[in-house]
Amino acid sequence: MRVKRRLGWGSWGAALLLVTLVLLGVLGLGIAYGSISSSLPEVDTLPVMLDPRSGSLLQPTRIYDRSGVHQLAVLENPGTQRRFLPLNAALPDALSPALAQAAVLVLEPDYWNDPALTWPNWSEERPLTIAERLTRDLLLPGELTDPVYRLRLQLLANRVLERYGRPQVLEWYLNSASYGHLAFGADSAARLYLGKPASQLDWYDAAQLVALLDAPALNPLDAPAAAHELQLEVLAQMAAGGLITLSDLEAARAWPAVNPPPLPAETSAAHAFIALMLEQMSQTEDRARLERGGMRILTTLDYELQQQLTCTLRSQLARLESQTSALDGVLCQAAELLPAAPLLTAAPAPVAASAVILDPLTGQVLALAGDTTLPGGEGILSRHPAGTVQTPVLALAGFARGLSPASLVWDIPADGTEALDPAEVFHGPLRLRTALTNDFQAALTTIYRQVGSAGVTATAHSLGLTDFALTEDPREILDAGPALNPLELAQAFSVFSTSGNVSGIQQPDSAEISPQLVLSVENAASDEVPSQINYLTRPVVSPQLAFLVQDILADGLSRWSNQQRNPFQLDRPAGVKIGTAVGVQSTWAVGYTRQTVTAVWLGYANPAEGLPALQVEAAAGIWSALTQFASAGQPALGWEMPTGVSLIEVCDPSGLLPTADCPNVVTEVFLDANLPVVADNLYQRFAINRETGRLATIFTPLELVEASTFLVVPPEAQEWSRQVNLPLPPVEYDNIQPVEIIPTTRFTSPAQFSFARGKVTLRGTASGDGFVSYRLQLGRGINPTAWQNINQPVMTPVAEGLLGELDTTGLNGLYIVRLMTVYEGQRVQLAYLQVTVDNTPPVVRIPYPLPGQVFAGAGQRIVTLQAEV
After folding, report:
1. Would you call 508 exposed, middle or buried from its count of C-beta atoms within 10 A (0-12, 13-18, 19+)?
2. How would DSSP label each residue in 273-296?
């Protein structure tokens, strides 16, 4: 009996445990369900959005300038006003019954027979119900592949059905669904594609609109063939469901496709800006939600500045194409600031231009025009070959790797031995500053090879040029290079205006910072819509490196080589870079003040071989006019030199410390960690026999010796120097010899005119009849005016032996060693040995990488090693 009682108690315990687990499971499901359902949106907003008279979705989304006064665009099809039509056919101007019946048949055949509430089923294979479609579109957008989202969607759709009923849900859905091409609601779609209201649709028309509910992109305007094919498929479903007869279907197959009436011309005041703004917003906002309507978007655009930019572009294009009549008397203040000097020649083919004005402190786009032509108006903002306008990126990459604006670079043919192309002009030795400012391509090619494409690309990416990529051929890079648009270049150049910072917006899950195009988004109730966008300012370049580039770009303002009025002459400090690409069929002018960055592109609308080069003055003139107008009334601010940067006098063009022989001393900027420590050796003084043109010696008569300074070129520049007739220093010594060689007083080693360093053994002869003593002396220069004794008088004669030793410690340059032999009767014989003392060891420095610098990162990384010898 005890055993049975124990077994009975065990069975009851197991049963109790099972019940407990079931209750816990139900409780857990209840908690999860409660958590999911409690966070669902309120369904009370649907009547507010879809009220037939005042619903917020009756109003399309409107886009304004930064003041909120000027409307830039409306997200709707011009001339198609939104209307909500009732479903009840007994009411006037109701939705066509054909549309409602066809929609139910195709989307949810059991729509009227299903219970008000359905058991949750979040299978991906199950098509959405009409209530779920409405809920997804207006209340709960999301990813259908997420099971939790499917559950939430179905729960919320059940609430909508329970609250409002199936007739109201169907009416709301047909009046708010997207039918493609900014057509929301059946009436808007019917008027756009069919040219009639949604109350007058027949079966054929209804099939076309129902087909668009699942594929709005395949509409008669954007994809007419696909739209007609889908229409016929819907008609077949309607025939199978008994809405139309088979004979009706056969007749419909012979009817023509829908032919929408033509759309009115677009009147947006900033077409390219609006396109970019919507693209940017789509990264964090549902694009369909924006296009559906009921929102007010405040952009960063300055309306007045935008008008001035557009007018200035068209004015310059009209001047270039000699079509000033195309402006029809439309002038603007900024266009009046275009340089007055006439352009040299009219362009032989249509020209296009685009431009951007950016606030560098905030990253906000103040004005933007896409590729604009006189006959075609404004298009999108396209990318074009950057050419030489990208070279500030090269300079920045070089400065980060030990170069400086004063670094010596040779503008000579790549192969120093090849003959010069008569069409090319080379400038020999230059400072990097000069090469960059004047776009001397041979010199810049050398710098590209030195820095490396990987180093330049990495630097470009840090400036926000994320699609920047280079080939390994520097000449191709400078002629074409990566394709960029004015907005990308404006953001990159803003870093030099802000001493190394970039400002803008950072999208979620991205480290990139993009220019800001939107200030705020409001709904119909004027409540600001929360955004996931993060506005920030981030340092991307050190202030010291940014200042070096800024100093060069500011220097470019005064280096306008044309004799016309300097278009860069402003009333305030600024930096600018002009550039050309593709045989000067594409031109650029990109520059900034402290308050604005302006980037201008101008080139042939249809580049082709044989077109002559454009004048970069045209793009420069647009930049000047826009910068002057945008700067009006703002303080004229400049840039302070940051700590860690110094001004040093150097010899031009070597960039080394000046000597007495340097013909041109300039002041340059250097990083304190990269100051010059070596004296200039590019210019050297030589003593020349003016009659023979050879190097003078101790034996050259003093009256024939004159000092001349020469530019000493390296071996790779010898051919260039010869072809440009650059005077070169002689390499042979004067062949004038002493009148008499005395066998008893002479040197045998080292050889005459040799180089010496350290301790030099002097051998020779000092002997003969009546010998008394000899002494060795040293004099500086080719004709010493003073002598110092190397040793004390030696009383023992020497024949072909050791005379003494010269210690050259502390000596450098040309010296004369004199052997003085004294004989009885105070007779003296002299011998001379000319040597060049070189005790300067090679100077080797590694400016990059910096001492202690650490490189980290996943995958392979190329590090450029920079050495100076």
Report:
1. exposed
2. HHHHHHHHHTTTS-HHHHHHS-EE
